[in-house]
Every structure is written in C-alpha cells, then in structure tokens.
Amino acid sequence: MASADVLKGHLDLLLLSVLAGGPAHGYAVAERLRQTSGGEFDLPEGTLYPALHRLERLGWLSSRWAEVGGRRRRVYQVTAKGQKARAKRHAEWTGFSTAMLAVVEGRA
Amino acid sequence: MIDEYLSVLEAELRRRRMRTDRRIAEVREHLVDATAAGVRSGLPLAEAKRAAIERMGPAAAVAEQFADDDHQARRQREAFWAPAVMGLAVLAGLCIAYVDSRPHWDDTGITVFLMLSAAFVLGFASPRWPWLWAAGVGVWIPIGAIVRTGKLGAAVMFVIVLFPMAGAYAGAVLRKTIRRILRGEAVTMV
After folding, report:
1. Do A71 and B29 touch (CB under 8 A)?
2. Cβ pair B97, B144 in contact under 8 A
3. Could you report the per-residue pLDDT of B8-58, keeping only the tens digit for each?
4. Are B70 and A49 within 8 A, CB to CB?
5. Which residues in chain B are contacts of A11 at CB distance < 8 A?
6. Any bridge partners for residue A66, and if so which?
7. Which chain B residues contact residue A50 at CB under 8 A?
8. CB count, 10 Å around CB of B151?
9. ipTM of the modeled complex
10. Under 8 Å between Cβ of B66 and B16
11. Residue among B130, B112, B135, B137 nearest B170 (CA)
12. Size of interface A-B (CB pairs under 8 A)
C-alpha cells in the first residue's frame, strides 16, 4: 500500500482524476480512489476534505449541497479550470514517472 | 462518540479562526458513511464508529490540515495573480508619471492622491506584497526626473514612493481586517 506521504504528493492529481469520472461527495471520492487503485491508495481521510476545499478555492472544483441517498451531501465536480490543471499535472507525472523508471530500471 | 469528536474538531477549527459549519457537516456525513460501511462489514456499531474516527485522524491534526490547505490555496492564488497585479501597478505608475511630466501639470496634490489611491486599490486586491505594488506605482516619477535632468541628485524624489507605500499598506490592512471580520474574529485596534 502506498504511504501517506507518497499519496499526499500526488493528491491533487488523484482527486481531480477521480472526480473527472463524475461528481461525488467526499466519502464517495475516498471509496472510488480505494476501489480504482485496487486498495493501494487508502487515503488518510483527515487530509481529504482540506484538499477538496483547497482545490475548490483554487477554482479547480466546484461544489453544492445535494440530496444523496436521502441525506444532504456536499457534492464536488471538476471545473474547466480543474480539467486544465489535471491535464498539466498528468503530463508532468507522465514525464516524471517515465524518467524515474528509466533511472530505477537502469535503462539507457 | 462521533458527536464528541465533532465537538473537539469544531473547537480546534475555531481556535485556528476557521469557519466550521460546512467542514463539520461534511466530516459528520463522512463518519456516518464510514460507520455504516463498518457495520456492513460485520463490526459492532461502537467499534465501527471508533474505526471511522480513527481513519479520520485526531481532530487537532484534521483542523491543522484544514488550516494548512487554506493557507496554501491563498498563497497559490496570490502567486497566480501577482504578475497581473504588478502589470497594473506599472501601468498606473507610468500613466501617473506621464501626466505629472506634462509642462502644464503642476498639481502635486492630485499626483500624490492618484498614486496613493492606485496603490490602495492594488493593496486591497492583493494584500500579500503591498511594497511591490507601491514600487510599481511610485518609481516612475523619480526615474523620469533622473532621465530628464541627467542628474542623480533627482534620486531624492524616490521619497515620493512613501505615498503609494502608505496607500498599498492601507489597502492591504483593510482587506485583512475585512477578512477577519467575515470570519467572525475579534478585531483589535492597536
């Protein structure tokens, strides 16, 4: 399982990517992340809401109260600005991971 | 158990002068969901609640994380807008310096007022670097004087940067005061 520190470094990209799959409330975001990663990314939940609020303040997410399963939940979704930020971070991550693998695996 | 946890979290958020309503509501709903999931997986109710709270983390740490992320978001936004604010400061400063350099213009009071108010608006809009906005507004008149006269002695005119400096800091202080009032903080006038 990935450590909390490793996850935290990529939290923005992970949250934007999970929410790119459709609007969701916080608990559903954590569940999607866990399920999509096959249980590898088990986010420390105390970091989830601060990060969602931060991304909203940056204009990358928007949120609204909605009835979900008969309960009032704050539902988040990615904005156009958030899509751009996600694409940029995705490209950065791809470049970084490719270079990292090349070094770690000793490829020329 | 969950209510106790939320009370502590609320107190920790208030101690950090943060709004609580939405944060507490979201964490409450999350803990309710996590407890239900624990019960579904076979845990007794009390154990499921305890596990949900444990996964959320200590209330003080969660509040600290909210404060950190809040601060980080503000810094990121300010850094994003800084070049635009600086561009506006330079533009305003150049316009004021141009008007001030016209031969028929001799109203120093209006020049000072324009510099002060332009810097005030910029300091209010972006309170992180008021000194920078003041410099952007204020340096052009002295630079123009040095270029026109060819004398470094004209550098004494840099003292007029004090006016936009006062304006920019007044704007920044007003913005921070309003932010505190909106957060429900007590504002102490010293």
Report:
1. yes
2. yes
3. 888 888 888 777 788 888 899 999 988 988 999 888 988 999 999 988 888
4. no
5. none
6. A73
7. 62, 65-66, 68-70
8. 9
9. 0.80
10. yes
11. B130
12. 65
Give the burial class of A94: count Cβ atoms within 10 A of its Cβ; 0-12 exposed, 13-18 middle, 19 or more buried.
exposed
String of DSSP letters for A8-72? HHTHHHHHHHHHHT--EEHHHHHHHHHHHTTTS----GGGHHHHHHHHHHTTSEEEEEEEETTEE
Q: From the CB of residue B23, how many other CB atoms can be counted at a distance below 10 Å? A: 21
The pTM for the full model equals 0.68
Residue from A17, A20, A23 nearest A41 by CA: A17
Whether residue B69 and residue A51 make contact (CB cut-off 8 A), yes or no, is: yes
Q: What is the CA radius of gyration of chain A?
A: 15
**Degrees to nearest 5, angle at CA A26 with A38 and A75:** 125
